[in-house]
Amino acid sequence: MVLLLAVKAITEENREFLSKYDINVVTPDTITEEQIPEVLISYAWDNELGQKILANPKSKLKWIQAQSAGVDYLPLQKLQERNITVTNASGLKAVPISQTVLGYILYFARGLNVYTTRHHWEPFTNQYLMSELPVLVFGTGHIGQQIAQAVKALGGIVYGVNTSGRPVPGFDAIYPIFDYQEALAKAQVVVDGLPGTKDTENFFDEHFFQQFNQLFLFINIGRGTTLNQEHLLAAIDDSRVKYAALDVTTPEPLPKNHPLFERPQILLTQHTSWGEQKNAGRMGGLFRLFEKNVPSFMFNGTFVQNVVNLSKGY
């Protein structure tokens, strides 16, 4: 019998599915000291309990299903040394996040930000069509591709940036992350969808914001650590960036009276771009991703999707 630690709640239907593969479920509340080294699969990650499992020399842990697309909160080096596989939740919330991004763009492009605070009759017509605001997306995975699809559906132009410049369907052009300047020169909207790694920390900094005269909109739905917020504020204040929409920040939650709250040009959505009704909650629908890997893992220890490269961190 294989032991799975369900850090996040699973349903009776989920348990029935797992039982078909002789997988027994324990939770942080029910696990015993004797069972800690027996855990083979961790469904989501609890750092305190997880470290206890890893510290046990007899630990059988082989697979962690992360509860998010980003995995920067996991002890990646230790997991790599132990040959433990991590699968992430990439793509789980791609549709709601992409619709939020589209909402950001339309909010500013169609002048809705002006009318939300205008309480007198003064028509505002300095508006844009999607086709007039080329979009550059950093990160061409599940979320980036869904954003591209949403933008194209409204007649927009969308460019993508990934590590190597490899082609990805749905984009008008793809550029490598070390040579994106041509695309940046064409863009009016930049979407930060980068993962949180050492290589991407403060990627969007003063140097980045000095590469253009005025950007219409900067969006961050990736990781707060990828953006130097002080440098963004400086770019907002000197009009190099006209507007910004941030779903992720550093820290979270932001303290009261933080400068990001005080700029009317900035829209903050407090890490909720993933929200939806059908699969409510940040992890809603996670088991659907997880269960696709169960048959192959139980058969021969392999995985069919969402395997994280522990060296790269995504």
TrEMBL record:
Transmembrane segments: none annotated. Keywords: NAD, Oxidoreductase. Residues 109-272 form the D-isomer specific 2-hydroxyacid dehydrogenase NAD-binding domain. Pfam families: 2-Hacid_dh, 2-Hacid_dh_C. Residues 6-99 form the D-isomer specific 2-hydroxyacid dehydrogenase catalytic domain. One of its GO terms (molecular function) is NAD binding. Belongs to the D-isomer specific 2-hydroxyacid dehydrogenase family. This is Phosphoglycerate dehydrogenase.
